[in-house]
Amino acid sequence: MRRAAPDQATYYAGIRTVPYDLLKEVTYALVGSLVLLIVLAAFLSSPDVSPETIQSWAQKQPIDFVTTATAELAGTTPSAQYGAPYNAGSASVQSLGFFSPQAWAGVHQPVDPAQDFVLQPLKADATGNDQLAAALSTYNSADAKQQGAWLDAYAKALKDAKTDAGQVTVSAGDYGPLPVMMSALLKSARAGGLDGYLLSNGRFYQTDYTRPLLFMGDGSYLSGLASDQHLVGNQWGVMNETGSYPGQAWLWLYTFWYQIPPYAGAANADLLVVLTMAVLSLGLVFVPLIPGLRNVPRWVPIYRLIWRSYYAEEASTPSGGPITPATSTPSTSAS
Amino acid sequence: MNEEVPSGSWTAAVRGSVARRLSLEKILPDRQPYYIGSWVYVFGVITIAALVWVILSGVILTFFGPQWWHVSATGRFMNSLHFWSVQLFFVFMVLHLWGQFFAAGWRHGRASTWMIGAVIFLVSIGAAFTGYLAQQNFDSQWIAISAKDAINSTGAGTFFNVLNFGQMYGLHVMIVPVAVTFLVVVHIVQIRMRGVVKPIEPKEAMKP
Question: Which domains does chain B possess?
Fold first, then answer.
């Protein structure tokens, strides 16, 4: 099965060698590439569109912010219904028949959007704010049916909401304590308090952005910006990047599958694409061992282009081409 | 020098094995078969040159911290060098890969050289991916939000959280570059140890 490479002295016996300076070649490559890189960096720079914050979201699209927060409270957002690794939902858990590694892996970064994104931040804000404290008390003491009725009515009213001086107003209706709660949450978000609260998680040092990113991802503000920058899934998604830069062009094949059936639109598209790419990646690694695939180079004779001087010399030398007796090439030090 | 080598010495055995396989003449050759005068052989060395600049610019970016390049013109230029050296690295790595595929570079006992090269390509994709996630800009945010579903679908989301900047940054500046560099060194040693593969002969089997 595995064939050991012959010793170079044997392998190159009889093949003409030429002077070759490895270090000179490496130095030329280093200097040449550095000059090119300096020119590219100086003239084309690199993309750096500032990140969005919950504050910028609440300031620029307050209705979308309040609509998303209300949906978090109602448990109807993608994050609220996600499933592993965030919570016990199932909407985003993918499987292929019985094969569901996502479900098997379980919950490891617990996120409860209603509590984490809305109720707990409001509870922290309620200190010294009697109106908000009363509204929270009313909401928490209501039964699920009553909460659902308020949330449903408020969510419908938000479709015709208006903004006035940074506040979201809806037509009159029975929304219970929600207008007070959402007004307080919006005020905190617009001031930047919610960014800090969702990130701090009770610790001073923090680098985990799971909660704020999930919250922002549930709204339509961020995805709208991404669509403007040609970054969403049906625009070849993550292989692109902001501006007119090449992005992760090496992900083209991965992204390609999302554009065609049966992957496009499939509920388990991610799992199907990852499995497909895993098989193809294994194929790439094991090309030398796969009959048929490893013969492609013979069928597509690009090798004759690569070694055209060798084949030309071979054709013009009646006595066996460039292969000469080993004794005539005493300086075959490559061996 | 004439001291007797103790039998059973692991050190002597390893030294002997390395010396047999990898002489200085093989590591630093000054002659090569004449057929390497093809542009295909340049792709690999440019890939390595680009990797050197990726690592050096990355070390400088890491030294000054992840916020530096967003607020400093020098930092932005260094990031741009890092960015374009990554692009150059991938362009020439892919050209090298295709060149070696159509040359059937795995022939004559070189299968593991090809396999490690292919693994370098795959690990490099992971290196670039964590780099995009560690940029701390809008691209990082959106790529994290978009990519989490694919990662989570495999169950890997339990230990590889693309929304966790700290984890992505640590992987990008330490673990993945060390892996790529180690594999590249092994790849180069394999090439120098065995030499470049000979041209395909008529009716030659493409077996390793």
Answer: 37-194 (1.20.810.10)
